[in-house]
Structure formats: C-alpha cells, structure tokens
C-alpha cells in the first residue's frame, strides 16, 4: 500500500449503523499506516440519522461531502443497507449509476443491494444480501443469480455482503484481494475479529430457510 | 423486556468507531421491538470525531446529551476505547466515578478500561482489555486481576470486553444475562453475527503473547 486509497461511503436516513462502521473501522485502522482518503457522502452535509421509525434508538453521523460534489472514481464505494433502503433513495441510486463505470470496486452490505439492483449493476451477476430480507430484495434484481448461502459474493468488481456483520468479512476479503493476506490478517487481529475467510461459510441461510433465486430475465 | 431500558454511551475525541457502534447496533435492533432510551454523552453537543492523528480516516457522531446533563442511573453505561483514552478524558472519568454507584451495569470495550481503571471501579476485580494494548493498560489498575485470555470478563456489574469486536459478544452476553438466551440469539441472527458465547474463547491473547497480570496492591 503506497498509493493513496480513496474510499467513498453513502449514508441516507435509516441506514444500518454497523453495516457502515464495520467496514469503515477497517479503513480507520489501515489509515494509521497507509494514506487513505474517506468521503462520507449524503444529499447534504446535515447529520444523517440511522433512525427508521419513531422511538427507535439511533445514531447520527456527519457527512463530509454531497452526492453532487463526490468524486466518481473511488477505489471502493461502500453502500450500507438498513430499512432506509426501502424509502426515497433515488439520488443515491442515480449517483451509483453515474459513478459505477469509473469506480474501482463497489461493495454493498446487507440490504444495500436494493440500491445496487435498482442501479442495474447486479444484472447478469451473482450477488447476495441480508438473509432475513432475502425474499424482499431478490425481486428487485430479476436478472441476478441471488446466492442464499454466502457470507459475501464477489462478481468482477461488484462485491455484495450478507447481513450487517458480513460487511466486515467482505471488507477484509477486499483488503486481502488488493493488498495481500497479511494486511487483512493484521487488520482482523487489530479488530480482535474472528474472521470468516471462506465466502461460502454462512450459517444464516439455514437459519432463515432460504434458497438461491435464479434470474428470470 | 417490558420496562424501558436506558442506555448511556460515552464518546470522546479519538474513540474507536466499532467499539461503540457494535454494541449500539444491538440496541438499535432491540429497540424495534422494545422501549429503549439511548444517550450519546460527551462534554458538549458538538460532533465528536474518531480521529486520533492528522490524516487518519475518521467519522464524526453527534452526541445527544452532555456529561453534565446525563442521567446517572442508566441500566447500562458503555465506554468505548481508542487512542483517545490516552488523552484528556478527565471529565469522563469524573462522570464514571459519579454515576457508577447508581448505574445498573457498566461495560468497557477495548481500552475503555483505561477510564474504568482511573475511576477506581476495577479495584479488587477481574477485568480484561484490548490484547494489543494489554501491557500499556494493566499498570493503570494495580489492584486488578487482568485476565489475558478472555473475550470478555464479567465481575459483578462491571463488564470489560477485549478489543473492538469483542464488545459485540460482551453486549450480547449482557442482553442474554438480562433478558434470556432467545433475545441474544435473535439479535445475533439479525446482525448475522457468528457470536462467541464462551467468555474464555479468545485467540488473541496467544496472537499477542500476553499473560495474566495479578494485582500488586
């Protein structure tokens, strides 16, 4: 790791907190040794809350740049999930469409796949998503082979992680893919994280009783 | 879970992002079904950054209440770690001293133990901390039995988790302790988290080559 790594992360109202902070804390940690630039991107610079419904416990994070001002050539663009993905996220979908052709890799965590599916970047690909929301998400990608038993799926430069903490494993795999196994091991040890290194090692498809959904178009 | 659960979490400049958001996302999730109140507590209501040194990638979170205004009777008070624990956290230590006698349980994650040790609440107890920082932290608690091989330690109402992601396991154990195994299992499945249920199941003491430190006072 010598060249600066540029990471973008989208945040919208009702995103799932750990979908975002799992992956980002890996880059927080790596940035102690390597040059990294991070943009936390939203429609405005106002704090963005994870709150989905009234009374729910939530946190608010401060974006660092707007969708309009964000670069479109990140090495990695991270898109968290959460109940907010079911609401008005059109500006984020438009940004993904616009940025994808010039972005290195994209990674959705959990139901962040809703935005990827709507942007069309899962067409003709294999992907996975949150296992509890599997049957709600898969109809959005009729041209996608949805893999039930996967901690994450990598298809070309499109990475899709399963629910919430699977984003940590997918991010470590991305780091390994780009910088080698030692960097990923060091990061996992730093986080004291009992990493899943095998993308097919997923107990949660069985917990939810789901099966692969094949493309219908 | 019928009575409202009140959770407090301290945030200071240079806290470790995932130390906080791992535990909190468990309560975000539980709060979809059960009444929970969360205070994110700092010296002021200004956003608090995880940044420790210039150039490091960081996130900023918005506190919801000040140390001065925070209640002192939370059911659970969470204290994250991070490099910021080595700086001026005196007001936080004072708050812990003041609140501890009327707080249900306290949980430190990672080097959040620095604040607990300085507040004196680890005296005469068993505790653990981040394994990479073990030898830096343990001298702060000369009256503490520091356990090297532990994912977390519970001693009375004082919970101490090992590094970063161990906070997720300790929080799930706290939920199990208070509300039963099914609530903790449901939360882990929701997070798609491969939980460690045994507090002694810790591979990272061996990674760092550390051993227990016994009290000297």
UniProtKB/TrEMBL annotation, chains A, B:
Residues 10-176 form the DJ-1/PfpI domain. InterPro entries: Class_I_gatase-like (IPR029062), DJ-1/PfpI (IPR002818), INH-QAR (IPR052158). It comes from the Eukaryota. Pfam families: DJ-1_PfpI. This is DJ-1/PfpI domain-containing protein.
């Amino acid at each position: 790791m010598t060249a600066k790594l540029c990471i973008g992360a989208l945040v919208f109202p009702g995103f799932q907190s750990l979908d975002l902070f799992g992956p980002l804390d890996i880059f927080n940690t790596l940035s102690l040794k390597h040059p990294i630039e991070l943009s936390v991107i939203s429609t405005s610079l106002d704090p963005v809350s994870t709150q989905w419904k009234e009374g729910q416990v939530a946190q608010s994070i401060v974006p660092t740049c707007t969708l309009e001002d964000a670069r479109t050539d990140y090495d990695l663009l991270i898109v968290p999930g959460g109940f907010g993905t079911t609401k008005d996220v059109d500006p984020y979908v438009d940004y993904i469409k616009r940025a994808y052709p010039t972005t290195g890799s994209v990674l959705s965590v959990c139901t962040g796949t809703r935005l990827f599916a709507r942007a069309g970047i899962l067409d003709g690909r294999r992907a996975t998503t949150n296992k509890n929301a599997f049957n709600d998400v898969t109809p959005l990608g009729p041209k996608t082979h949805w893999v039930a038993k996967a901690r994450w799926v990598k298809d070309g430069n499109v990475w899709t992680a399963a629910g919430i903490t699977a984003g940590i494993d997918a991010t470590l795999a991305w780091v390994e893919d780009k910088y080698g196994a030692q960097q990923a091991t060091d990061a996992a040890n730093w986080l004291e994280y009992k990493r899943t290194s095998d993308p097919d090692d997923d107990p949660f498809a069985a917990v939810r009783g789901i099966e692969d959904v094949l493309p219908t178009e």
